[in-house]
Amino acid sequence: MTEDLSVKNEEDSLWLNPIDDFVSDQKIKPLYCIRQGVVFIIDATEPMFEINPITNTSYFSQCLKACKSILSEKLSWNTTDYIGIILMGTNKWDQDPEIKHVLSWLTFEEVSIDQRKKLDKALLDIETFHSEIGSSEAYPLYDALWHASRSLSTVKVKMPFRRIVVFTRSDDPLSNNQTERYRIRMKAKDCSDMRVPLTVVGLGEEWEPEHFFAELEVNSGKFKTIDDYQRTFLSDIEEEVKHPSRTSAKFEWELGGEVKLGVRMISIISKSKFPRKIHLKKENNEPLDVHTFWRTMQNNDSENESSEDEGDQERIKSHASLYKSNVWHYVTYGGRQIKFTKSQAQNLKKIYEPGMKLLGFKPRSELSVTYHIEPAKLITYDETTLRGSRALFACLLAQCMVKNVMPICVLTSRQSSSPNLFALVPDSTYEGFYAYRLPTTENLRDLAPLIGEYIYDKERVCSTNEDTLDLCRKIISRSTFMYEPTMFRNPKLHMELASIESLALDEDSLRAPLDTTIPDKKVLYERLGTLKDKFESVISIHDSIPQKRPINSAPDGFNKNAKVEEELDFEQRSGRKKYSKTAERLPTECRDTASWQEK
């Protein structure tokens, strides 16, 4: 059991009486808002403008590119997150005379195209941007933290996820001014009291966090002790801000009788979704509001619905619209329709109130890896729901680790969600349980027929021997690599996001993103060496593949892959269906084609 989970003082003592004064009688409100606010503090002193030998760009440029990448993704997803950038150590600062050498370069506000354009302009010429803002010898980290805290607190919108990120090149600043260092530590502790995590990203291989910043992040509450500290790199902070782990629900865990503790469920993996579609007006591309109404279905409505004009639709809506209270849901049982009102249909899901109930314990070995329905969630304690939960949670976690068992619970995360069975696998590293949803009968599938039909071909059996198998083992060994989820992106999704970005910035051409699902043949062949040729000679794979007959053969003397030359006469090109012209010249060519055909 780790030291930070043990009971250290009276404040962490165990309170289990549900009628105790510390237990809140108010109903726990579910979390539905996921708005995120991030303030980036970038060090603008002279060391930040040095060239990184690995990337051949300045460290300051790397920070702006990371902020641009985060901002671009949030704009593509049309989120309502807030982002701000504060530069410290500049010769130019805001009009406030009390905060010198601190410049609020990007105002903390909802993400917008103007912020992206400002970042693009700065990255276009870093030297000119550096000459405009200048660099001073001062290191006003305290003033920058105060300004960032004020920016986060002045925004009067619901923002449950807020954080401050510091990019710096200096690992031992203000070493001769212990008073200023003490002020910075106290300001970091204030961020912890405000529930605003503070993250410091050190740049450069020689950056040593043990000099000052490791202790600073411990004071901010990000780490329990100095031994738990882990350095955050620039690539890490991009993934943390783009795909943060979020608290999806808070509820009580009923252990038996009147013994309960407060817990929260954290989503550590989110499924990639395509951007939400918006209905536009055909005439001027104006966004439209969608309203749904109910009406009675006539016998001939399905036939005439496609031919109705706007007047007929307005008449149907005004004369045949129904109230939601008059809409019934039904399920057919035994040839009869069992009807339910909307409220009754919703109450069918409310078998349990939101919360988690312990059913028993099972050995951890009984959880099969094949029982995968959805990504696991992290269950950890929550002192704000029920005081004393931390101590009881720590004892339960420790005993599960010692006895090598996992709790089996029924979990209902929200009011309208159905209950599901979960197996909680203890993990002392992250001070919680990984909740794996257990499958039911309808979730199980028999894959034997599919495997026999598509994986193994009985008609074309490959003749192998021990030498061939040994060759295949070597090929697998050389082509194997460590898998990371961030290595492969959905090409269709990122192509759509790139198209949205290009339209928003009024760019003439689309910069297609790299398709990471296609393997790099050059790198693969270099790793295989001569094994590729040996495998092809042993298996004779090219001889066994039958040649497919072309569906439509091209006419004699016509090469489909030949490129159309620019000097080709337009009268000859107009008879073909495809032109080798860019999208910008296509309207002009179409007009020329129409005039030529009239002549």
Structure description:
The structure is a single chain. The chain is an alpha+beta fold. Among the domains are: 33-244, 3-Layer(aba) Sandwich (Rossmann fold), CATH 3.40.50; 463-544, Orthogonal Bundle (Ku70, Chain: A, domain 4). It has 19 helices and 18 strands. The strands form 5 sheets. It has a 7-stranded mixed barrel with strand order 8-9-15-18-17-16-14. It has a 5-stranded mixed beta sheet with strand order 5-4-1-6-7, with helices on both faces. It is globular. The model is unreliable at 1-32, 553-583 and 593-599 (pLDDT under 50).
Number of strands: 18
Strand order of the largest sheet: 8-9-15-18-17-16-14
CATH class group of the domain at 33-244: Alpha Beta
Percent strand equals 15-25%
Largest sheet: 7 strands, mixed, barrel
Unreliable stretches (pLDDT < 50, length at least 5) are 1-32, 553-583, 593-599
Averaged pLDDT: 78
The SS-based structural class is alpha+beta
| CATH domain fold name of the domain at 33-244 | Rossmann fold
Percent in helix: 25-40%
Dominant shape: globular
Number of H- or I-type helical stretches: 19
Report the end-to-end length measured between terminal Cα atoms.
89 Å
CATH homologous superfamily placement of the domain at 33-244: von Willebrand factor, type A domain
CATH architecture of the domain at 33-244: 3-Layer(aba) Sandwich
User: Using only CA atoms, what is the Rg?
Assistant: 32 Å
List the helices and strands and how they pair.
Blueprint: E1 36-43, E2 51-52, E3 57-58, H1 59-76, E4 82-88, E5 102-110, H2 113-124, H3 126-133, H4 141-154, E6 161-168, H5 178-193, E7 198-202, H6 213-219, H7 234-242, E8 246-256, E9 259-267, E10 294-295, H8 301-304, H9 310-320, E11 321-322, E12 329-333, E13 336-340, H10 342-347, E14 355-363, E15 377-381, H11 389-403, E16 405-412, E17 420-427, E18 432-437, H12 448-454, H13 466-479, H14 491-504, H15 521-528, H16 531-539, H17 541-544, H18 570-573, H19 586-598
Parallel strand pairs: 1-4, 1-6, 6-7, 8-14
Antiparallel strand pairs: 2-3, 4-5, 8-9, 9-15, 10-11, 12-13, 14-16, 15-18, 16-17, 17-18
